[in-house]
Amino acid sequence: LNNDGYLTVNGTLTDNGTINNNTGSTFTNNGTSNLNGIFYNNGVIANTTILNLNATGALTLNNGNISLDGTFNWLAGGDLTIGPLAKMYLANMLTIPAAFTLNVDGLLQINANGNIANNGILSLNATGNFIIKDTTDFITSANFVWKEGADVTIGDGGLVTLSQPFTIPTSATLTVGDG
Asked: Is the pLDDT score of 57 beyond 90?
């Protein structure tokens, strides 16, 4: 499926092949979308209800934005990548499955009501940005890899509780907002 316009799911969509959400296009999920195949995003994804990244699925955010206001179920075996030009806005729970890694080369932003349950590893790579605008306590030295050159911002409304020693890498920036 090649989307070059506006695709809205109000019922159930099951992807067993490949979806290309191309530059300038919008994929809106108001129903239930089951990703069993490959989903390449270069446009905008708006999830308001249920988006399932299943064990055989891959969600590759090359460019554009994804807003996870609804439920996002990432099952073990599925692959999620945030590329250098991509932006993920989280306003709901994101659970990284055990033994899996979320590689962030672009932007991962936790907005109000957003949270990460981290059973796996969040890897903030050299070009990555992580903005926290709500309370989160998932960051520990065991499940958060912060690489040189990446930036973390604790913005207005953001609160991070650290339960273990934490090191800011060389050439990385930690910015704490005034809110």
From this structure: yes
Beta-carbon contacts of residue 27 (< 8 Å; ≥ 6 apart)? 3, 7, 9, 19, 21, 41, 43, 44, 45, 46
The CA distance from 106 to 85, in Å, is 5
The C-alpha atoms of residue 167 and residue 141 are separated, in whole angstroms, by: 8
Assess contact for 111 and 131: CB atoms under 8 A: no
Q: Of 43, 34, 41, give the one whose Cα is nearest residue 15.
A: 34
Query: Could you give the CA distance from residue 33 to residue 11 in angstroms, rounded to a whole number?
Result: 8
Return d(Cα 63, Cα 101) in angstroms, integer: 19
28 in Cβ contact with 9 (< 8 Å):
yes
Nearest partner of 152 among 168, 173, 136, 133, judged by Cα: 173
User: Cα(166)–Cα(153) distance, rounded to whole angstroms?
Assistant: 15
**Tokens coding 120:** 């796996």
- Percent of the chain scoring above 90 in pLDDT: 73
The set of residues, in sequence order, having a beta carbon less than 8 Å from that of 53 and lying 6+ positions away, is 35, 59, 72, 73, 74, 75, 78, 80
pLDDT at 179: 58
What residue has token string 């989280």?
90
Amino acid (1-letter code) at residue 43: G
